[in-house]
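Entry:
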Amino acid sequence: MTSRQPSLLTRPRDDLHRREVPDGKASYSLTYNALQFLRRRFAQKASRIYINEGDMDRLRIKCTDLEFDPTLSLTRTGALLELMSAQEMERLAQAHTFPEAFRHNLDRPISNTDDFHAADSLVGLFVQCLYNVEKASPFLPPVPPCDGWDPELDEDDSLPMLHEKSPWEIRSPSDSENRLLQCLKPPAGPMWMVPYILYSRDGSSPHLTCFVIDGARPREDALLFSEVWCLLAMSWFGFLEPENRKHQNIPVTVISGSCRQFRIIQGYANGETGGIDLRKTPIVDFAEAHADRKDQHWHEFMTFLRWMLARPVGKTT
């Protein structure tokens, strides 16, 4: 897990400094200016949890609906990721022989913990599925053995990892990224952090995905401050990578969670329109399972895995 240190949001202004980017990209300037604006707003208590309508207008944020379980992703206008089919995901899950073990932890009641650590536990389970690791989070209980899969075989080369079916690698944020991404000791309001980042394995795509864990619950009618801040910060980092200099946009997908409520936020700063284009899925609630919801929870869990394995698409140059 990432080290926990004070957020850059409370540090001197020159920590978030403009850096020269070739061709004077309008989308880079938009991203940088939006981050500076949000940091000023963060100093005001009312703006530390949700982005209000005034800030949406000021930043020209346009937020539209995003289908959580798309079937024809390539036909969607402005699609950033192409998801594999639900049938292919189920086939991969069966091939990796983890369904029963991970269902056990997905349905396991969470008690004696706050919303932040409850979400961290579920994020650990997502990562555990992708990498066949025994314990991806210190808050995640060990996975019980099941037929055909043994946690002791984690390092065995004969056991393929699910993420190898995707174009992504996973890492924790660097120290410099952490200083900008996380807010673990805010003056007021819940804490948030980014534990993992997915990036292109071969460097062919500027797309990035990150997990955001927040102590504040998401709302259907509002964006969390952490969701917008981390999306723009990840995009800003992307612009600074030399291999991304040919790209005009750095699309970012945020997998956002609090307690057992999760959703997907996607977007980027649009240099052509001068605004920030965002899309969000409905909130998916992995509430403590009732018998009639277990299959639905598993389908939703597998859909999140499809987002994590999805292929980047769309024009960025």
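Residues 1-14, 133-159 have pLDDT under 50 and may be disordered.
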